[in-house]
Amino acid sequence: MDLLVARHYSTVFRLALRMMGNEEAASDVVQESFLKALRAIHGFRGESSFRTWLLAIAANEARGAMRRGGRRRETGLEDATDLPDGNPLPDETLSLRQERKRISKLIASLPEKQREAVTLRIFEGLSF
Description:
single chain, mainly alpha, 128 residues
């Protein structure tokens, strides 16, 4: 299991962070997700990749944590990603920041399941 945790921790953490909005809550979700996966590893049938199965567990755990703890705190994309390399001009920086805010608002306005699907597809590269 140590190898699986080492291999998938950052992916699960990124998903949890996007869903939960803060690192502390995301860490709790990641820990619970790996514990649930360990307890249920005998039920993994291999119909999907282990990564997909683990991300489904993490998404379910994050949804449960949000239900138990209320709505998540939104985190803007400008906080989650770095600007492209190569010293952009100030107006380019402002334009990128505005575009990230606009995209973040659009994603946040989606219903929970659609927001999750978009996050998994765009940020984690999973297929629909």
